[in-house]
Design brief:
This protein is about 35% helix and about 30% strand. The chain is globular. The chain has 3 helices and 5 strands; from the N terminus they run βααββββα. The chain is of the alpha+beta class.
């Protein structure tokens, strides 16, 4: 099991996201549970980002929406940074 750390920014963004996209609440909850269990599960498609976000990773919530995070393997920690559309989170 990994520990999920919700940053203050992610908490606000997730609340706003859930309010704007109530149809994705269940999917979001499942992704967060799976991240907590093991972020390296193949269906999560955890991938590294490039450029100015090179130390950051992301998982897809849907084709359009992403969750941006960091993973510290040695401490089994996942820090949730942002959630939103592709363009919003990769700015």
């Amino acid at each position: 099991m990994y520990t999920l750390h919700w940053t203050a920014y992610f908490t606000r963004a997730a609340k706003k996201f859930a309010k704007q996209h109530p149809e994705l609440k269940k999917n979001l909850a499942e992704i967060l549970r799976d991240l907590e269990e093991d972020p390296f599960q193949p269906h999560l498609d955890l991938h590294s980002l490039g450029g100015k976000l090179k130390d950051i990773k992301a998982v897809s919530l849907t084709y359009k929406y992403r969750i941006v995070l960091t993973v510290i393997v040695t401490d089994k920690e996942v820090t949730l940074l942002d959630i939103g559309s592709h363009d919003e989170v990769y700015r």
